[in-house]
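Protein 1 of 2
SEQ + STRUCT:
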Amino acid sequence: MAPPNRTARVAVLGSSVQRSRSSKHAAGRARSAVVRRLVLALLVLGALALLTISFRSPTSGALHNVQGTGASILRPFQVAAERVARPFRDAYGYVAGLADAKSENAKLKREVRELRAQSTQNLAAANLAASLQKLMNYETGPTYPKDYRAVNTSVISFPSGPFAQQIAIAAGSDSGIGINTPVVSADGLVGRVTNVSHTTAVVTLITDPDSAVAAQDLTTGVSGLIAHGPGSTLILDQVSKEKLVQKGDVIVTKGTRDRRYPDLYPYGIPIGRVLSAGPSDIASFLTVQVAPYASLDSLDSVAALVATKRASKLP
């Protein structure tokens, strides 16, 4: 059986052993740190010395020979590294070039769309300008009706279907336009205003089934009513079979010949040219087909004819 003080002696001896071991480890670590710092300082000094010698040495000498020998020895490793790295560098370049190409392609497509839109706008503006110029030429021409001023305006909507024979224009009562105001293009009669607001108006075309225009053959003087015909044509109705109307004759508005029966349209507005004329066994009148001068399905601009004189009062 161990004496009671043995445990205490063992504890004291163990603690002293542990302290000696820890102190030895600490001293070893301190020496290692000093050695590492010393080696690092020597390497730095050596590098500085080599750089100084390299810069100050002539183009030939032992050091340069050593450098050349080292470069020759390392050359195969450089070539191998270059060959290994080349596929990765090429792949990177391909991916980068592909991304740049896609970006450039998207940019070019965007520029093409912008240029196409600008070209379309310029073409539309050129067509509108040409149409307005034709209207101005018509206004100063011999067939322009007297006592009327022209309100030149653009067409803002077209017929919505084959049975809708109306257009909308960008001018209204603020410009003096009212119900039944005649509307023309530079080529001929278009129709009359049937609805009007302050800044816009609705024009019913002469091809509408409910439209009727007092007209006259400019060559023979034969009178009739221009009405809706087959397709996009017109007919000169109410012409007696005894009258003479020939192919190619020019049809114009008849205008008001009697103050008791005022007409909506002034005299002399061109309507169209006769396509065919002849009698029919089943018709009471001469069958006269007329092609309108105005391109009613592709109007860019028109002129509303606003009277400058008030109508005379009936006696």
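Protein 2 of 2
SEQ + STRUCT:
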Amino acid sequence: MSSVAVFAVLAAAVTVGAVVQGSVGLGLGLVAAPVATLVDPSLMPGVMLWLAAGYPVLTLVHEGGASDWHGLGWALAGRVPGTVLGVAVVSAVSARLLSLIVGVIVLVAVLLTWRVVTLPMRRDVLVGAGVVSGVTGTATSIGGPPLALVYQHESGARLRATMATYFLVGALLSLAGLALVGHADATDIGYAAALAPFLLLGFLLSGVVRRHVDAGRTRSAVLVVCAASALALVARNLLT
């Protein structure tokens, strides 16, 4: 596939992912990361992490006041050691195996929280979600589902704003961690910047979907996106 075709495919994936995340609170990594892995693995995880750091700014400008700062503090406290562990995974462990394991765990968690279990908004649960998210976000660029499952019963605006703040800080931590161990590439920034207009396009288009999701469908949308994230991780392991 030519470089122009690769960029076009990624631009479309980033636009769709931005629509999903702008309406539900997560989804950019779900849509764009598997596509990037298939068409040009060298873009992973750097380019996706830069996009994951840039997109939340748009959400925070629009809905930043709804963030749950108290819960974020505990989740980010878990994200730091999770990022360190994620860097170690990238350096020494097969990311394919991690994707398979995490995908299965997230899918089971979705099924359990759909009918059986309600994840309490407790300190230990938030820290645990942050740890798991730090590992998967750094190693696979898909780190949203663990925390989103905790916030699935919150309002759409609260979920989106909280996840946006978490994604921004978490992506920057992951990028810093990768840079420390020599896995950062300066060309990733330029490639991500070229894709940035498609982030904006997706965010603008998400307004229509956002109104639909906020009309009592937030929890269902979160569960669907988290389940799709888990299946994408498993598929990535099997297809690459």
